[in-house]
Amino acid sequence: MKIYTKTGDKGTTALFGGTRVPKHHLRIESYGTVDELNSYIGLIRDQNINDILKKKLTKIQSDLFTLGAMLATPPEKETLKSGKERLNIPKINKESIQFLEDDIDLMNKDLPQMTHFVLPGGHQTVSFCHIARCVCRRSERLAVALNEEETISETVLKYLNRLSDYLFVLARKLTQDLQAEEIKWIPEKF
To answer: Which residues in the chain land under pLDDT 50?
Structure first.
């Protein structure tokens, strides 16, 4: 497989199914931001964290590749002329979301109750989690905007929403595991 095809030299790219769109198309922005998110999760996985967490993050990265493929497929191209689905892979589904929820609950049970917002930071690994959370929220906003133009799977929206929650709780868990300080945001009084 050649890395460069030269087909995008004039500012367009192909979606799954062959439709060509400008590289700034909302669909491209949406799955491109999912790709950016995936890279940040890889950065978290590369930190000095436990192997169980690394495996969970690898699963999430795999799910994000699937989610990106779902976003890269316009609704009118989801089904082939034969009636089969274009994407011959397991899709993001209720079980994918349940995986995130179960792990959020597992991590959260040992964390102190939140009484204030927390300032991002405290440790480099924790900061990477917060950056990934912010990119996830941007990805979610783009997917919501895309959904207003062309319907996308509701599970994509739910997954991105839950993943941002997951990344926040992961940041708090790693703050605890790494014995970093969690700084509460307490607005100054005038």
So the answer is: none
